[in-house]
């Protein structure tokens, strides 16, 4: 009955609009006594349809209760839109008013008051044959991870209750531990990586010197992905001109495991000897698919492996995983986006991140999929990264954002990525700076 009810859908009349639109049009303000919004962090985006629908429902309810395990992703704006949608009158009193229907200026003011903004000054000589030589200065403002104590005092503490399952009782949850493992590349792999990064970094510097950011995303994605995808040839082309920028031959054969893959195999085999199942996350499950290769390499070691793909509907994923457990699977491989919410994976006390991705919410939610009420085994989470690559820079920046997110919730981070946490900026831009400076 629970499975049937979870997929039940309904509609109002023969209209084509959503239930939230019906409520907005036909029900008065304060019609509902209470709105409960689970996974509230999913509604943080200012222009998302989900967030706007939640705002509509909050306006029609006398009281709103938001539930989330990840209050913020590191930036003050993560909280602004949630606060504005559930405490609209209070936020307007604070001076954060919409401007011609847009909250952009109010969000920026909130960042200036309670978050961290960096003003970047660029100065260059401007020489012209018609005018005297002078200096031209430009200013660019970017946001960085951080949330000030005044913001916590005024916007968080009066409206928030922090409850951790481990505080309820000593036996509610087992221990939870995170480990970071830096993996060294082989000589051939490191040599090819050095050649590729040297060429792409040089091209990126020249492009950025002309204030052209077209190649920024391309270079970042290639340098992050190549160490994990070097079992196939890599061809990098300009996204607009299609000009060939770089080419790298494959380093490993189809049946030859890379150093990080050998590390995964070692973890999975040792966990099986302890009677523990592994959940392996790989963000490359589409064009750069690595999940099929990981499955083959693990099966060669005598492990039973299954790959969860996006073709499995969300409402059927819990049953799919239960079926794999019944069949005696040792390892399940998945993209973390597929299991980040709504699933309790108690059968997999060991979790391995082959890559972390950029999203703090996804990482924190996915890392705790098996650390739930009912878990009896100690939960172990491993983060793997290649030494001397952009992957380490990405993990460092994720550690910074996690530290801000957890400290805002009154909890000091004690995680495997914590050793990488030195100080704050956007992941993509900070990685770009590291590449250009390399």
Could you please describe the fold and organization of this structure?
The protein is globular and about 65 Å long. Helix 3 (49-59) packs parallel to helix 4 (77-86). 35% of the residues are buried. A six-stranded parallel beta sheet has the order 5-12-11-8-10-9, sandwiched between helices. Strands 1-2 form a two-stranded parallel sheet. The protein contains 16 helices and twelve strands. The model is unreliable at 412-429 (pLDDT under 50). The longest helix is centred in the middle third of the chain and has 23 residues, at 187-209. The protein has helices spanning 2-6, 19-26, 49-59, 77-86, 88-93, 104-114, 149-156, 165-168, 187-209, 216-229, 259-273, 291-299, 317-326, 360-367, 390-408, 427-437, and strands at 32-37, 61-66, 116-126, 134-144, 176-183, 234-237, 244-248, 278-281, 305-308, 331-334, 350-353, 379-386. By secondary structure, it is α/β, with parallel strands linked by helices. 39% of the residues lie in helices and 17% in strands. Helix 3 links the parallel strand 1 (32-37) and strand 2 (61-66). The N and C termini lie far apart (58 Å).
